[in-house]
Design brief:
Pfam families: MRP-S33. By secondary structure, the protein is an all-alpha fold. Helix content is about 50%, strand content about 0%. The longest helix is centred in the N-terminal third of the chain and has 15 residues. The termini are far apart. The model has no long low-confidence stretch (mean pLDDT about 85).
Protein backbone atom coordinates (compact mmCIF):
# COMPACT_ATOMS: atom_id res chain seq x y z
CA UNK A 1 0.00 0.00 0.00
CA UNK A 2 2.82 2.40 -0.74
CA UNK A 3 2.11 5.25 -3.08
CA UNK A 4 4.74 6.57 -5.42
CA UNK A 5 5.10 10.33 -4.99
CA UNK A 6 6.75 12.16 -7.85
CA UNK A 7 9.40 14.82 -7.29
CA UNK A 8 7.21 17.53 -8.79
CA UNK A 9 4.32 16.70 -6.43
CA UNK A 10 6.72 16.75 -3.49
CA UNK A 11 8.11 20.12 -4.59
CA UNK A 12 4.57 21.49 -4.92
CA UNK A 13 3.79 20.22 -1.42
CA UNK A 14 6.86 21.96 0.02
CA UNK A 15 5.97 25.18 -1.80
CA UNK A 16 2.41 25.08 -0.46
CA UNK A 17 3.68 24.34 3.04
CA UNK A 18 5.97 27.39 2.85
CA UNK A 19 3.03 29.57 1.79
CA UNK A 20 0.82 28.30 4.61
CA UNK A 21 3.42 28.61 7.39
CA UNK A 22 5.00 31.77 5.91
CA UNK A 23 8.52 30.40 5.63
CA UNK A 24 11.03 30.98 2.83
CA UNK A 25 10.77 28.59 -0.10
CA UNK A 26 14.33 27.53 -0.87
CA UNK A 27 14.32 24.44 -3.12
CA UNK A 28 18.05 24.66 -3.91
CA UNK A 29 19.09 24.97 -0.23
CA UNK A 30 21.03 28.14 -0.99
CA UNK A 31 22.48 29.94 2.03
CA UNK A 32 20.23 32.91 2.79
CA UNK A 33 21.27 34.06 6.26
CA UNK A 34 17.64 33.79 7.42
CA UNK A 35 18.74 32.37 10.77
CA UNK A 36 20.67 35.54 11.57
CA UNK A 37 18.02 37.87 10.16
CA UNK A 38 15.37 36.23 12.36
CA UNK A 39 17.52 36.48 15.49
CA UNK A 40 16.88 39.20 18.05
CA UNK A 41 19.18 42.23 17.75
CA UNK A 42 21.98 42.34 20.32
CA UNK A 43 22.76 46.06 20.26
CA UNK A 44 19.95 47.37 22.50
CA UNK A 45 20.73 44.78 25.19
CA UNK A 46 24.42 45.70 25.16
CA UNK A 47 23.64 49.41 25.39
CA UNK A 48 21.45 48.77 28.44
CA UNK A 49 24.08 46.52 30.07
CA UNK A 50 27.02 48.95 30.05
CA UNK A 51 26.69 52.15 32.08
CA UNK A 52 27.14 55.47 30.29
CA UNK A 53 30.72 56.74 30.21
CA UNK A 54 31.39 60.07 31.94
CA UNK A 55 32.72 62.51 29.35
CA UNK A 56 34.62 65.43 30.92
CA UNK A 57 34.25 67.67 27.84
CA UNK A 58 30.48 67.14 27.75
CA UNK A 59 30.15 67.82 31.47
CA UNK A 60 32.23 70.99 31.15
CA UNK A 61 29.98 72.23 28.30
CA UNK A 62 26.84 71.43 30.28
CA UNK A 63 28.01 73.06 33.52
CA UNK A 64 30.08 76.02 32.33
CA UNK A 65 30.09 77.78 35.71
CA UNK A 66 31.41 74.72 37.59
CA UNK A 67 35.02 75.36 36.50
CA UNK A 68 35.64 71.83 35.18
CA UNK A 69 38.87 71.46 33.19
CA UNK A 70 39.59 68.73 30.65
CA UNK A 71 43.34 68.36 31.14
CA UNK A 72 43.84 66.30 27.98
CA UNK A 73 42.13 68.98 25.86
CA UNK A 74 44.06 71.76 27.61
CA UNK A 75 47.34 69.93 26.88
CA UNK A 76 46.33 69.44 23.24
CA UNK A 77 45.56 73.14 22.82
CA UNK A 78 48.90 74.04 24.43
CA UNK A 79 50.74 71.68 22.06
CA UNK A 80 48.95 73.17 19.03
CA UNK A 81 49.92 76.67 20.17
CA UNK A 82 53.55 75.59 20.65
CA UNK A 83 53.64 74.09 17.14
CA UNK A 84 52.18 77.28 15.65
CA UNK A 85 54.81 79.34 17.43
CA UNK A 86 57.55 77.15 15.87
CA UNK A 87 55.93 77.35 12.43
CA UNK A 88 54.82 73.70 12.43
CA UNK A 89 51.05 74.33 12.69
CA UNK A 90 48.34 73.76 10.14
CA UNK A 91 48.41 76.12 7.15
CA UNK A 92 45.80 78.87 7.13
CA UNK A 93 42.55 78.13 5.33
CA UNK A 94 41.88 79.97 2.08
CA UNK A 95 39.15 82.59 2.38
CA UNK A 96 38.29 82.55 -1.33
CA UNK A 97 39.28 80.67 -4.46
CA UNK A 98 42.13 83.05 -5.28
CA UNK A 99 43.99 82.28 -2.05
CA UNK A 100 43.93 78.54 -2.54
CA UNK A 101 47.32 76.84 -2.85
CA UNK A 102 45.93 74.52 -5.51
CA UNK A 103 44.97 77.39 -7.82
CA UNK A 104 48.33 79.11 -7.14
CA UNK A 105 50.17 75.97 -8.29
CA UNK A 106 48.21 75.83 -11.55
CA UNK A 107 49.20 79.35 -12.57
Amino acid sequence: MTANITASRLAALVKTRCQIFQTAYNPTSARTGAKYLRARLRGPSMVKYYPPVANIAELARTYKNAGLVDFAEAQRLKDVEDKKRRGKGAPPKAKDKGQSRRTARRR
